[in-house]
Amino acid sequence: MTYLIISDIHANLEALEAVLAAAGPYDQALVLGDLVGYGADPNGVISRVRALPSATFIRGNHDKAAINLASIEHFNHLARFAIQWTADQLTPDSRDWLAALPVGPLAIDDLVEICHGAPFDEDAYIFDDLDVRRAMAAATRPLCLFGHTHVPAAFRLVGEPHHVGPPRTDRFTLHLEPASRYLVNCGAVGQPRDGDSRAAFALLDTSVRTLTIRRVPYDLPAAQNKIIAAGLPEVLAHRLALGR
Ligand code: ZN
Questions:
Q1: Residue-range definition of the domain harbouring residue 67
Q2: Which of 1, 34, 66, 103 is the 20 to 30 A CA-CA neighbour of 60?
Q3: How far is the CA of 172 from the centre of ligand 1 (A)?
Q4: Is 158 exposed, middle or buried (0-12, 13-18, 19+ CB in 10 A)?
């Protein structure tokens, strides 16, 4: 079984198209939430992922906020502006579809589970050692995939959790050892925040137990121009080029 793992698309259709083109064949897509928010193509991204032949979804905090399922009290002013803009743009069909997205964590098979923030709380961020320990304790599968931070990171638990990657590279492959447990963020498709502007995604091949995180360039100027033309804050366009 080959899974395509995509998270935090954030209404960036150009980044999503580049990822789908680079991914090659796979059996099932796992989409870890935050389809909308920040970018200029919320309905376009929703239509594109809904048309994928086989995909499993969970919701992210921006998906909830865009349809008033969650408060935007904790959003900064940029995220808040973008969410209000997104809410105005969503078609009734897109809204209904977002409202029906499952809540993570979600077990996919005996090896994998997915969540947006953390397996103990869909809105929590996994950044430090304490977060990692808590998440590892809550995970119900050997490989727990998460998003939300927009920063690729892989941790392996052998006694203590160890950070095992990824380095700054086009392609990082993790070989999943049978007796180990892993917590992995495969990065963000539509708004990377690790200083690399390229879209991030991953492919998991369960037959050989490899998880490969990849980066691909996309039509960044097109995505930026749409953000500016939409009247969204220009900083949302600039940050894409910085990967911040
Ligand atoms: Zn996000």
A1: 2-241
A2: 1
A3: 22
A4: exposed
